[in-house]
Amino acid sequence: MSGPDCTTANSTCPAERAAAPAANAAAAAAAWRTPLELGVLGAIWGGSFLFMRVAASDFGPLPLVEARLLLGALVLTPFLWRARAQFTPGLWLRIAGIAAINSVTPFALFAWGAERAPAGIGAITNAMTVMFTALVAYLFYGERIDARRLAGLVAGFVGVAVLASGRTSGGGSIWQAALAGTAAALLYGFGINLVRRHLTPYPPAAVAAATLIAGALLLAPLAFFTWPAHAIGAASWAAAILLGTVCTGTAFVLYYRLIARVGAARASTVTYLIPLFGVLWAWLLLGEPLTPTMALAGVLILAGVALSQRRVARA
Q: What is the distance between the alpha carbons of residues 95 and 213, in angstroms, rounded to a whole number?
């Protein structure tokens, strides 16, 4: 042997003594980094509804979504470039179809709703995505749905009904925006299931980039013909740029990093934070009040999300 025996119970190798503090430090860093990054991601995605509220009336829904897709793709394109050899023409066609369902149409529905109702409405209905993902998996892919998940779905739908019945502080109806947000969450539910079954062999960040690029190309003609004739204000441009680069491109990078480190189940808990931050930013920065109807609907929907989440057994 080239060195002393370090395997006895009463001795410790110098290398082990040196490595122990580093391992402890890494574990401690992971313990605080994951909650911090979940909080940051929830704040970013909650802010997307604020930025849509600011910019949608100036841009119009389709031009705003086009800007969002292009700017998000710009941030993520380096990931796609590294994996470009895997993306065949057939795969691009598949991605284009999924992009229409999972990006273009729901983004447009949320932007359309943002023209008509407070930012918190879209943020609250977005939380239905988790439940719709489970419902689509049950109806179309034969996945089991137990009584707990069914109760979660019922609670969520009641929450949407309560939300749609509410009015703004000025007396305006919000049912159209609530239904648009719910339809967008339903499309996300389809899109997530399609991504799981058709795109999982490919690098997630590269798939996200390809989806945004395909969506931007699909929407480009409609965005061009509906582009506003008037000058777009600086505040709307700033909101659109932040929506695309931060809330879409940067957020995807952060989300996939979380999935790689802590798994999809734990990363998906960011769903609980998005409505809270969406309402908070709208209140702080736009002065939009939280109405009793919004509060009740938010509690019901988030309770439904909590019930519909699977408990993942850990060894």
A: 10
